[in-house]
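Retry 2 of 3 after timeout on previous attempt. Resubmitting structure tokens to design endpoint.
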């Protein structure tokens, strides 16, 4: 009996040790990631090591890093979300909420509070953003480059009517984007175009955003494309762009989008995406020059170059995930289109500083620079323009 108890004790010890060690061993041996698909956020980076680093600061940053990267973390989050959703019919974490008719909405980063008018920029922040946009536009203009900032509206801003009625009760009059649009007007015009009225009108006859994803679909992105092309043609009268696109008869059916993933329901729901006909995609991938590879070496920047119309202008796009849907439309109209994922994390935003942008501009020689960001990250746009643009001539 004592021998059997000894074996049982050893088995418990081995099992306990395996449970404790497995996350650590998986972290050591498996490929690391810098983005959480389950939480829709960048993960903490490994802290820098140097002889002058403060030990306590390093330990604190390493703890944050390990909390984000231990083995099985993403699987555990997904399983937790899936079980809570399956058994209780609601989200286990406040990442996403359910609306009407199967619509899902992102709920982090104070998106709902912004929609309800509870989140505000103060006067100093508004001034910094407006002055920064003007200074950045002037900086590009001095180099003969057209600068176009573009804000992709939050899904809630377009499909508010698909939210449950309880969220409408606290609806305010203005959002942070409304503040910015009103404050950054130069005469009758604004540095930023408001796509929301067009997208809301579109929502009455066809769907422009995915039901189970945070992003617009190909039909919603098409409205942003038309705005950009019209804006460019105003500055370059000889510029010609594609006006019509053909879509496949049937949409592409996939598992649920990123919001369904947050809720652990990606296998339980379907998403339907409009699909461009194959003959519409007349672009080819190019190779970055050694200089551009050097300046865009951060992996999260994910630079990609496309070749389109050889007789047209050159385009540089600093963007977030919303512009991915626009690349097929936009690229066919330019000789070369360089896409850089600027709004990924704090490190990536540094590419927007004039000292960093200058060598990229010299190496690529764009005629147009588009800077696109989703509405909920307007403070990141502020960070991208909040520099002394007179430092680099």
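Retry 2 succeeded. Sequence:
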């Amino acid at each position: 009996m004592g021998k059997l108890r000894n074996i049982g004790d050893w088995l418990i010890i081995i099992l306990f040790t395996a449970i404790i060690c497995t996350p650590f061993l998986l972290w050591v041996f498996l490929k690391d990631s810098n983005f959480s698909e389950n939480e829709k956020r960048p993960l903490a980076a490994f802290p820098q090591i140097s002889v002058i680093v403060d030990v306590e600061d390093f330990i604190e940053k390493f703890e944050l890093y390990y909390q984000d990267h231990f083995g099985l973390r993403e699987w555990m989050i997904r399983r937790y979300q899936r079980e809570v959703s399956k058994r209780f019919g609601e989200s286990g974490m406040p990442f996403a909420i359910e609306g009407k008719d199967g619509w899902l909405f992102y709920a982090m980063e104070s998106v709902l509070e912004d929609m309800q008018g509870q989140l505000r920029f103060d006067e100093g922040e508004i001034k910094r953003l407006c002055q920064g946009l003007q200074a950045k536009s002037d900086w590009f203009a001095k180099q003969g480059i057209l600068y176009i900032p573009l804000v992709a509206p939050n899904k809630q801003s377009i499909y508010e009517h698909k939210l449950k009625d309880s969220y409408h009760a606290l609806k305010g009059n203005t959002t942070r984007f409304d503040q910015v649009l009103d404050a950054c007007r130069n005469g009758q015009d604004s540095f930023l175009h408001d796509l929301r009225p067009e997208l809301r009108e579109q929502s009455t006859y066809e769907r422009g955003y995915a039901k189970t994803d945070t992003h617009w679909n190909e039909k919603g992105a098409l409205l942003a494309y038309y705005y950009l092309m019209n804006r460019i043609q105003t500055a370059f009268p000889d510029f010609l762009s594609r006006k019509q696109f053909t879509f496949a008869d049937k949409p592409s059916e996939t598992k649920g989008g990123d919001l369904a993933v947050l809720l652990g329901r990606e296998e339980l729901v379907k998403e339907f995406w409009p699909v461009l006909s194959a003959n519409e995609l007349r672009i080819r991938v190019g190779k970055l020059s050694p200089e551009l590879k050097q300046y865009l070496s951060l992996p999260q920047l994910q630079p990609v170059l496309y070749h389109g119309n050889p007789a047209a202008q050159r385009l540089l796009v600093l963007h977030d995930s919303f512009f991915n849907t626009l690349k097929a439309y936009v690229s066919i109209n330019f000789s070369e289109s360089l896409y850089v994922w600027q709004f990924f994390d704090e490190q990536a935003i540094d590419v927007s500083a004039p000292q960093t942008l200058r060598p990229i501009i010299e190496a690529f020689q764009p005629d147009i620079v588009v800077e696109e960001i989703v509405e909920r990250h307007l403070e990141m746009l502020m960070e991208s323009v909040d520099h002394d643009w007179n430092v680099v001539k």
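Attempt log closed. The two ends are 85 Å apart (CA to CA).
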